[in-house]
Design goal:
By secondary structure, the protein is of the alpha/beta class. It folds into two domains: about 350 residues, Alpha-Beta Barrel (TIM Barrel); about 55 residues, no CATH class. It contains 19 helices and ten strands. It has an eight-stranded parallel beta barrel, surrounded by six helices. Strands 1-2 form a two-stranded antiparallel sheet. The chain is globular. The structure holds iron/sulfur cluster. Iron/sulfur cluster binds next to helix 19.
């Protein structure tokens, strides 16, 4: 049975949007349907998210970029998050995740769903943990029923994809927390679930009751973004047994979900040294049966706070070349503070550049056309053409503004090498 025949919410979305998506991706509807059936592509969109513009993620569609925004206990200003949402979309983010952990999370989420035509993702565990942490209680005392209720509520609200750390097991948590890692567990969701399992000596409820999640996800076509709760948080922790144990579990869960008509992505690292990125990506793709892989960076050095968007873009470009489908941005604020609007823009542009670099190296026609268009425009000193090919035309305009009446740019002025040869 095809995936679409098992998932009526997905069928509604597919029928309504496949023509536009197919044109945008330069793929036939049949090729997209085949990739969805194989589980190597997902169609992000919850029919309850009014005015959502669904997108596909996965080979061989264009690599997508996600921007994380959301309140934090030290910086809880919903209006700033709304502004950051607009900046992320204007900069070209394909999706946005609301990672809010402070204030009225329902109100923030509802506002973002209204304002965000791109698919919106969340981490439902945050809403549940907030209930305990804000009262000074231990999230390890969490009632798992609250978690399933939160997932259902957010699915009804229209959330398009959800990070759910279903693959972290008691054994994996034990290994990561007590097994000699430099950084232990750095995922917020992963650390909460690990604490819950270790304190209660019980298995992860998202794993033991995975079928309940599947029922909710199928009804609303919520794509499960199977979270990497044990992702390495230091380059030297990459590829340890705890990470791979979780990856293998995620692969088996993705297969189970597909059989039940539920779409899944796999979340990936994290901090990975440059020489290990390719092996990590190929290994994860293989262990998860080519499910769309969504990576955070990967961050190729731990020593560049303030420049993590650059260190992440290096890893992102390598990861795209190795087969990654979806890049989650890192901003200059990573590891330091909550990003502001300028950080959001810098992060989205760095990830978009990484995607362009990776796709160019793969010979993807759209990426090559953009490179060729820029080269032709530069050769002709055609600034409109350069603007059209630029990833950030707004920045091009701003930097050129003081000398925009000149044919050449201010880098060389009348020493312009392009003009020098052209006039011969
Ligand atoms: S002035 Fe220099 S940098 Fe600018 S277009 Fe001419 S050669 Fe290129």
């Amino acid at each position: 049975m095809s995936l679409i025949s098992l998932n009526s919410a997905l069928k509604t979305l597919f029928d309504a949007h496949i023509e536009g998506i197919s044109q945008e991706e330069e793929l036939t509807p049949a090729a997209i349907e085949h990739a969805l059936d194989e589980g190597s592509m997902v169609l992000l969109g919850n029919p309850a998210h009014k005015n959502v513009r669904p997108i596909v993620v996965g080979q061989p569609s264009r690599v997508k970029v996600n921007a994380n925004i959301g309140t934090s206990p030290f910086q809880n200003h919903p209006e700033c998050e709304s502004a950051k949402l607009r900046v992320a979309l204007a900069a070209g983010a394909d999706t946005v995740m609301d990672l809010s952990i402070a204030g009225d999370l329902d109100a923030v989420r509802r506002g973002m769903l209204e304002d965000c035509p791109a698919p919106l993702g969340t981490v439902p565990l945050y809403g549940v943990a907030q209930h305990y942490i804000d009262r000074g209680d231990d999230p390890a005392d969490m009632d798992p029923e609250r978690l399933f209720a939160e997932v259902e509520k957010q699915a009804e609200q229209g959330v398009d994809f959800m990070t759910l750390h279903c693959g972290i097991t008691r054994r994996g948590a034990e290994w990561a927390a007590r097994g000699g890692r430099a950084m232990g567990i750095v995922s917020r969701g992963g650390s909460i679930l690990a604490r819950w399992m270790l304190k209660n000596d019980r298995e992860n409820p998202l794993l033991t009751d995975f079928d309940r999640l599947l029922g909710i996800a199928r009804r609303h076509n919520v794509t499960l973004s199977l979270g990497d709760g044990l992702r390495p948080g230091a380059g030297c922790d990459a590829g340890d047994p705890a990470q791979w144990e979780e990856v293998i579990t995620l692969g088996t869960l993705a297969r189970r979900a597909l059989k039940e008509g539920v779409q899944c992505m796999i979340e990936g690292p994290g901090h990975v040294p440059m020489n290990e990125v390719e092996a990590q990506i190929r290994g994860i793709k293989k262990a998860t049966f080519n499910a769309p892989l969504y990576v955070l960076g990967p961050l190729t050095t731990d020593c560049a706070p303030g420049y993590d968007h650059i260190a992440g873009a290096v890893g992102g470009a390598l990861a795209v070349r190795a087969g990654v489908d979806f890049l989650c941005y890192l901003t200059p604020a990573e590891h330091l503070t909550l990003p502001d609007a300028a950080d959001v823009k810098a992060g989205v542009m760095a990830s978009r550049a990484a995607a362009q670099i990776g796709e160019t190296s793969l010979g993807r026609p759209r990426a090559l056309r953009r490179e060729a268009a820029m080269n032709t425009a530069r050769k002709n000193l055609d600034w409109d053409g350069m603007r059209a090919a630029a990833l950030d035309p707004e920045l091009l305009d701003a930097r050129r503004e003081p000398h925009k009446c000149e044919e050449e740019c201010a880098m060389c002025g009348n020493f312009c090498a392009v003009k020098m040869l052209r006039e011969l």
